[in-house]
Design brief:
Elements: H1 9-30, E1 40-42, H2 44-52, H3 57-63, E2 65-67, H4 82-115
Antiparallel strand pairs: 1-2
Helix pairs in contact: 1-2, 1-3, 1-4, 2-3
Length: 117
């Protein structure tokens, strides 16, 4: 059974994958000026697909990580394009929050059911 299955279904795994992607994108942004740093990203759809087939979130994320190909390579070998990373970070943060809100709603429903409301 994939991690996150059960009470929260695939949504728990999706939240973990989004969190891991946020960390990776933040690392890219932090290393924007590091010579030779190669930006990476998680293919979220691929990772979620792997998780739905039995991989835990960590395994799925590791399998779905790839180096980003820059549109404009820098002379020092760094492949971070700051505007791209910032946009992807913001989009993923919104998606993380939406997934979290959905899970909070599910938890609230379960609490009401336990209380008999």
């Amino acid at each position: 059974m994939a991690q996150g299955d059960g009470l929260f279904g695939i949504d728990g795994t999706a939240l973990r994958l989004r969190s891991q992607r946020l960390n990776l994108l933040a690392s890219n942004i932090a290393n924007a000026a590091t010579p030779g740093y190669r930006a990476r990203d998680i293919d979220f759809d691929r990772a979620l697909s792997l998780a739905s087939r039995g991989y835990d979130a960590d395994q799925a994320a590791n399998e779905a990580v790839a180096y980003r190909v820059p549109t404009t390579p820098s002379l020092d070998g760094n492949t971070v394009e700051l505007s791209t990373e910032q946009t992807l970070f913001a989009e993923n943060a919104v998606q993380y929050r939406a997934t979290l809100s959905f899970l909070e709603g599910r938890i609230s429903t379960i609490r009401r059911a336990w209380k008999g409301e």
